[in-house]
Amino acid sequence: MQGGLSTHLAEQGIETDITHPTVISGDAKLTGFKRVLEVQIQFVNIGSMTMALLINQ
User: Fold this and answer.
1) Span 7-34, pLDDT tens digits
2) Which three-class secondary structure state does DSSP give residue 15?
3) How many CA atoms lie within 13 A of 20 on its CB side?
4) Dihedrals phi, psi of 54, to nearest 5 degrees
5) How far apart are CA 11 and CA 49, in angstroms?
6) Which has the higher per-residue pLDDT, 51 or 45?
7) Phi, psi (rounded to 5 degrees) for 48
8) Per DSSP, what are the bridge partners of residue 50?
9) Contact 43, 51 (CB under 8 A)
10) Phi, psi (5° rounding) for residue 8?
11) How far from the centroid of its chain's Cα atoms is residue 27's Cα?
12) Mean of the per-residue pLDDT values for the chain?
């Protein structure tokens, strides 16, 4: 999913840096980012997952 988004953004002239997935459980605080785009994804047989896109600019 992130690879496709990164490719699309690169075609628009926007540089991205994809990192390996991070699993966060419980209360956590991430700092150093200007914006966060959070998307919830629903899977039919296993439930939901939340994906966060952390933006530096």
Assistant:
1) 888 888 887 777 777 777 888 887 888 8
2) coil
3) 1
4) -95, 125
5) 27
6) 45
7) -115, 165
8) 40
9) no
10) -60, -45
11) 18
12) 81
In this structure, what token pair is assigned to residue 43?
């899977």
Q: What is the largest CA-CA distance in the chain?
A: 37
Round the CA-based radius of gyration of the chain to a whole number and report it: 13
At 44, the pLDDT band (50, 70, 90 cuts) reads: very high
Outline where DSSP puts E strands in the chain. Answer: 35-43, 47-55
Residue 1 — very low, low, confident or very high, per pLDDT cuts 50/70/90? low
Give this prediction's pTM. Answer: 0.47
The encoded tokens of residue 52 equal 């966060």
Bridge pairing between strands 35-43 and 47-55 = antiparallel
